[in-house]
Automatic annotation (TrEMBL):
Family according to the record: Belongs to the arylamine N-acetyltransferase family.
PANTHER family: ARYLAMINE N-ACETYLTRANSFERASE 4-RELATED, N-HYDROXYARYLAMINE O-ACETYLTRANSFERASE
Organism, scientific name: Amycolatopsis nalaikhensis
Protein name as catalogued: Arylamine N-acetyltransferase
InterPro entries: Arylamine_N-AcTrfase, Papain-like_cys_pep_sf
SUPFAM superfamilies: Cysteine proteinases
Superkingdom in the source lineage: Bacteria
Length: 67
């Protein structure tokens, strides 16, 4: 996954150093930006859980995550 594309998707800057505060901020932004959705199931789409498939769905196609 392209980290910068993901950070752009959630509207976050790359943290200067790894820290608990930085992780909390990234998690908050993800939760506020990437909704839960069940459209793929409803539309009968195949559920793909590989890194490239999820990255494409969440980042490039700007869709939501699944549970």
């Amino acid at each position: 996954m392209d980290v910068q594309e993901y950070l752009d998707r959630i509207g976050a800057a790359r943290p200067p150093v790894p820290s608990l505060a930085a992780l909390r901020e990234l998690q908050r932004r993800h939760l506020e930006t990437v909704p839960f959705e069940n459209l793929a199931i409803t539309l009968g789409e195949a559920i793909e859980l590989g890194e490239e498939a999820l990255s494409g769905k969440l980042v490039r196609r700007r869709r939501g995550g699944i549970c």
